[in-house]
Amino acid sequence: MGFWLNQALGLLGSLIVFASVQFNNRRVILAAQAAACLMWIVHYGLLGATTAATINILSFARSVVFYFNDRKWAQSRAWLWAFLALYVVNTVLTWAGPMSLLPGIAMSMTTVALWTRDMRRTRLLYLTNSPFWFTYDILARSYSCMVIEAIAFVSYAVAVWRFDIKKQPQA
């Protein structure tokens, strides 16, 4: 796959996710996360960014489980802790220096964001994980994801403002 086509693949995954938070619907966000993870697995894999590629395999599975957490088999808090532990193991097994910590931290924050049913907390955690991905994307040469992460940060900030800060008009 050519360099620019790979960058476009990473860009598309990012666009799907940051647009999804504008819907204020947890299931839409989770479905978007799963689709984006598939794109990022290929994108980061082709860049040789092993930590990010493998963490997105775990994150795809996480999105599927969390999407179905209205069902008994997926409701256990053990899923949350299992995925958080798997991110730590992934970071250790794919260690390429301190930069490997960045996707582990970011995905841990995203995992907590997607587990909670509190949409305010989801948006705030998305907002705070952006700097970790932005930094990683610079180091991994994921230019499209770096640019879109900056845009996503603004999108998350807008969502926080719209849904969490802005005063609702009194009827």
Order of helices and strands: HHHHHHH
Q: Could you give a short account of the major beta sheet?
A: none
- In the predicted model, the low-confidence regions spanning at least 5 consecutive residues are none
Shape summary: globular
What is this structure, in a nutshell?
The chain has 171 residues and is mainly α.
How would you explain this protein's 3D organization?
- This protein is mostly helical and 171 residues long.
- It contains 7 helices and no strands.
- It has helices spanning 3-20, 26-47, 50-67, 77-93, 101-115, 119-140, 143-165.
What are the defining features of this structure?
globular; 171 residues; mainly alpha
SSE layout:
Layout: H1 3-20, H2 26-47, H3 50-67, H4 77-93, H5 101-115, H6 119-140, H7 143-165
Helix pairs in contact: 1-2, 1-7, 2-3, 3-4, 3-5, 4-5, 5-6, 6-7
